[in-house]
Amino acid sequence: MTFSAASVTVGTGPVSFADVVAVARQGAPITLDPTALEGVAATRRIIDALAEDVDPHYGISTGFGALATTFITADRRAQLQASLVRSHAAGSGPEVEREVVRALMLLRLSTLMTGRTGVRPATAQTYAALLNAGITPIVREYGSLGCSGDLAPLAHCALAIMGEGEVRDAAGTWLHAGDALRAAGIEAVVLAEKEGLALINGTDGMLGMLVLALDDLALLLTTADIAAAMSVEALLGTDATFAADLQALRPQMGQALSAANLRALLAGSPLLASHAGPEDPTVQDAYSLRCSPQVHGAARDTAGHAAMIAGRELESAVDNPVVTLDGRVESNGNFHGAPVGYVLDFLAIAAADVASMSERRTDRHLDASRNKGLPPFLAHEVGVDSGLMIAQYTAAGIVSELKRLAAPASVDSIPSSAMQEDHVSMGWAAARKLRKSIDGLGRVLAIEIMTAARSLDLRAPLLPGPATAAVRDLVRTVADGPGHDRFLSPEIEAIVGLVQTGAVRDAAGQVAPALH
């Protein structure tokens, strides 16, 4: 992985969205705030005092979940904490992406550094050392119900700081955790009272995936506006409907931003000017063109709501039991993932709808009855060539999958732990399917951009505007223009790369720098 030179300090307050992205995706190193570490040590002294109490205290001198009333003697508590982590590291399935594991580890570390969990400073320092060494615990796809936190994923990470389980090093090589820690000069942790619970009782996995999804959507929703602008232009649509005064009649914030993008992207377009005015026979464009700001804007507003929820969650200290500011150790329900699970599901709905509208624009390019003079399927030699016919099939197949993924995970619940945990959030599942949705959205937009670029070429000698021309020219660096049929899959994948890396947005932004 690529490591960033910029450092992220944990403990001075909530980590930011940018911090999560930097640590998860760029490998930014972590430093721990010394004052916060002192607070962690002060809270640990409260736990140590309770550990000596003859009365039972949940998570300190008792079992867990349905075994919360079972008293554990002092000589068995280290085994209790280790057993908790080992038994809960029960994930199954494919490995979760490295960026997700790093995000959830950073967020768990952030909670540890609040001083509300009762861990020892050395435990937090070891957690940070793993991140800084690029050691990533292997977390499996299945195992979290999103209540009592992301138990199994976090347990796999806790197991690693104990020197047990499986990890990958900075080069991505599989290692036993003990070997990886020794190679990095990191001493494995022997967990003390309360620490096992503190390491696994959080919503960090689903929250990390939410923050990463919001970072992706910020890029893709701007890219959706770019794709729509290219289609409006190539299909001889009008930009009149995007006028600011018309948009202001419905003061939805996201809609206004998307409409402003479309105006900027279509400014100075000879293609639009070629048919503007009273002689234009088109009364109004189809919804997939005309209503782009409304749909893209609604997705923006949904992302804004999700960002608000994520921001609140980043400020949280999620653990059970938790050490309060006045020193009490109290059980609570803050580990329930409902707030995060709901917005993860909301975003999957938005992603599916934006992709659905994009696919409808792609289809319009290919239909000779609706594309205003372009050849059927944009084929070079009609009847011999199929053009981009099957590229639209690919987009349609992805959109159909996105509609299935839009079915909410958070409405489901399966009781666990002998009915003690009788309602769960399924927030982890909501996050996992959102990642697939975002990948699919990027692919559908790439196919629209590829299709619109060909349509723009076929409108010659009429020229596109400067911003859309810049994107068309970028596409031409990885995919040829109109011509006889050829192997399309590599071109689609190359354009997907341009979308997902932000190259498409950057190309348009060089010409229209005020894009939102």
UniProtKB/TrEMBL annotation:
One of its GO terms (biological process) is L-histidine catabolic process to glutamate and formamide. It is found in: Cytoplasm. It catalyses: L-histidine = trans-urocanate + NH4(+). Its EC number is 4.3.1.3. Its main location: cytoplasm. One of its GO terms (cellular component) is cytoplasm. InterPro entries: Aromatic_Lyase, Fumarase/histidase_N, HutH, L-Aspartase-like, Phe/His_NH3-lyase_AS. It comes from the Bacteria. Keywords: Histidine metabolism, Lyase. Pathway: Amino-acid degradation; L-histidine degradation into L-glutamate; N-formimidoyl-L-glutamate from L-histidine: step 1/3. GO terms for molecular function: histidine ammonia-lyase activity. It is an enzyme of class 4 (lyase). Belongs to the PAL/histidase family. This is Histidine ammonia-lyase. It comes from Cryobacterium psychrotolerans.
